[in-house]
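**Sequence with structure:**
===
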Amino acid sequence: MRAGWDRKMAGIEESGAASAVARSLELVLKSRGNANVVFDVLEYLESEKEDEILSAVRACNRLFGTLLEKGELFVGKLPEENEPMIAANYTAEDQYKMWMRHRYNSCVCCLLGLMAHESFQVKESAMCTLMKFVSLEGKYPLVKVNWEENYNFPRELLKDVVESLLPAEDTSLLISRFQEFLDYDDVRYYVMTSVSDNIARVMQKSKEALLPKYQQNVFSLISSLNMPSQESDLSNFMVKQQANHEEWKVTKLKEHRRAFERVWLGFLKHKLPSSLYKKVLVILHDSILPHLSKPALMIDFLTAAYEIGGAISLLALNGMFVLIHQHNLEYPDFYKKLYSLLDPSVFHVKYQTRFFYLTNLFLSSTHLPLYVVSAFAKRLARLSLTAPPQAQLMVIPFICNLIRRHPACRVLIHRPLGPHGLTDDPYIMEEEDPSKSRALESSLWELQALQKHYHPDVAKEAGVINHPLSDLETDVSELLDISSYELFDREVKKKFKCTPVEFEPVRGLFGKKKDICAEHFVLL
């Protein structure tokens, strides 16, 4: 009974607070004589109760939105609040608007602070109210603008909002809510310029130390930018300009790309947490490179990412490959770096599928030097000796495809006097440079050895080299995801024909037909 009574009283108290805020709002809007009541509304913004804060945010939204629309906030350089008004010859009207403008500034400061509130509902409500003020300040500017020479956008207010989205704590949920505002071309442009300035300041202050949560927030924000593909797409503006749009930077695609390039290069020139390297590299070729005026500037980031190792190195090579083939980047060490990634661990890591998918893509050109292709074929063959069966079933067709693309590599198969084992093989497995590995002097004896593998499918697949290879390549993409469970399941489900072991069926336990034992010990 007591708990129910407490909940009832709490509901009445909360309802009373909301009613009090609503009454205060109506009084301020009804008469300027009630202007001081605005302090009551602002006081609720600092309440410890979530419902009171939300009521106050809604009240501020309506109150200052109305005042902006009616032009009842001072326009121009705002004097300090304690500055004498009479000496400056301000009218009573001006003094009222200045006073209310100071209240508006206080409200904005409170709302910016609430974007760090523990309640997501409060943070969301505060952010959406601030973005409404951005829209209204653009339409009813609080600074004097010469419309023939300048363009108005409340950049400072938006900059404050962006900074509140990028604290040193996780705000990914709030950023995802903010993404709807990035559909406006002008908002997206000024967000990019604000983030660039913020990154430079924060990272300089941290002296290049890792800031995982901050950097994750920056990535969440800038990775959600949907860049226009052509200038005619720049037509959706939050703030409509009264001046000639042709001279406004926000209407120029090259300016958007310049801002996009600046924010990404500014972000990626600093060291990132390992998890962020992966996220950036995954979207690099689709979402970042196409919108850069000079994609080759990414080479420093990709080189640094490659040095980390593992999956990050592979993803970095994918970015380099795009730069080489689509943007004419010269990077002679590309295949040397890819070759160095081939070690026994590639068959036992979770990114094995992606690794071989990309490796197949990188080696798809028929214009690669013969020594490069032979080195890759030989190294994969050597690694396959100790690989699990599911990997061997993928690697053998992979090697055969390389030979099909480069017929000159057939010498690795048709070399009867070549090495027959590790002891007399001239190939240098430890050499990281494919040009020095001596692969062309060797042979693919490893595939012949796999013909005696315990798994019948592997032995059968390795036996393909005993016959002339067809010109049609094997689609290795279908073999990349084979697991040991699938191999076992496939064997279990195989149907075997019953093969008789005797020409004359056995009748008894100890002998054949007409045998004395068979006559007396008959199988039932």
In short: DSSP finds 21 helices and no strands in the chain.
